[in-house]
Amino acid sequence: MNKPRRKQFAFTLIELLVVTAIIGVLAAILFPIMASARAAARRTTCITQLRQIGLGLAMYRQDWEVFPPRLSTLVPTEVSDPRIFVCPSDRQRGIHDGNERLEGKLFLATGVSYDYVPRWKAAVDLGWWTPGPTFGQGKWDDLTPIADCQWHWAGTFNANWSDNAVGARGWQMVLTAGGSVRKIRVEEPLSLFTPDRYR
């Protein structure tokens, strides 16, 4: 007696190609969405860190009646965790040679990703801050930029950067002297900046 043969199922070449094409289309749709979600998460972390730095600056100012000479001065008294100074979008994790404006590893071994605007020659030249060691109240009081993050549009550190980069596109996060975090377009010239350009 012959046993009935089981029917075997197999995919044809065309069916495999259709499935592969569908997976390729789905991947092409999902990868940019996931990259965008990761960038949004990094921005959110950066904003949170800038707010914590703003609280540290406010405490320092309350104690000493001036802003600190540099951002890393806040460690360890006003800011206990130095990792707060490293933006998650900074590929070098704050480890740059550094200068007065963007300290990098100049004063803090763990690095600093954020610019300290009162130490920036362009900001002093434009009258946003008076020259150090005391920087004054700032041109727009609590709305004057005091720290910022360029890493959401910039991929590398440029020690000589003095104005918004030609052809740059994107947003830069700005911590104001009052402790709020705003954003501005990087393609707008610094000389035209006023607080009404915040978003």
Short description:
By secondary structure, this protein is an alpha+beta fold. The chain is 29% helix and 9% strand. Strand 3 (171-176) and strand 4 form a beta hairpin.
Description:
This protein has 199 residues and is an alpha+beta fold. It has one domain. 29% of the residues lie in helices and 9% in strands. A 4-stranded antiparallel sheet has the order 1-2-3-4. β3 (171-176) and β4 form a beta hairpin. The longest helix has 52 residues, at 13-64. The chain is elongated and about 100 Å long.
Strand proportion, as a percent range, falls in 5-15%
Number of helices: 2
What is the 3D shape? elongated
Average pLDDT value?
Answer: 88
* Spatial strand order of the main sheet: 1-2-3-4
Total separate domains: 1
Task: Give me some keywords for this one.
single chain; 199 residues; alpha+beta; 2 helices; 4 strands; 9% strand
What is the strand and helix layout of this fold?
Blueprint: H1 13-64, E1 115-116, H2 121-125, E2 145-149, E3 171-176, E4 181-185
Antiparallel strand pairs: 1-2, 2-3, 3-4
